[in-house]
Amino acid sequence: MAATARLVVQMTPVEKRALDLRAKRAGTSTAEFVRRRLNADDLDDHREEIEALLSTLESTAPAILKSIDALEADTREFSARLDALAGIPK
């Protein structure tokens, strides 16, 4: 789609560099990056879904962390057993 209007936005040099960097990371021009961001779904359109996901994450995080801790302990124990079998001193 050809541009039909020009928009000038004043920003600090730091803001401009940050915007250019974000566009570069997205693999697009700064103008295209801004257009895409304007056309993206608004956060408010998905607020309820996001809040539900965050709530689920909040309620499951302790169990997930506990499982990770248990797996780390099992890994340390398994590693120590392998070292013992291989005759590696502690």
Structural notes for this entry:
With 90 residues, the protein is mainly alpha-helical. The chain folds into two domains: 12-41; 43-90. 71% of the residues lie in helices and 0% in strands. It has three helices and no strands. Helix 1 packs across helix 2 (30-39). The longest helix has 40 residues, at 47-86. The mean pLDDT is 89.
Radius of gyration: 25 Å
Instruction: Look at the structure and give the mean pLDDT.
Output: 89
> What is the N-to-C succession of helices and strands?
HHH
% residues in beta strands:
under 5%
- The number of distinct helices, counting runs of at least 4 residues, comes to 3
Number of domains: 2
Q: How many strands appear in the DSSP assignment? A: 0
Low-confidence stretches: none
Shape: elongated
Termini distance? 67 Å
Structural class by secondary-structure content: mainly alpha
Helix content: over 70%
Biggest sheet layout: none
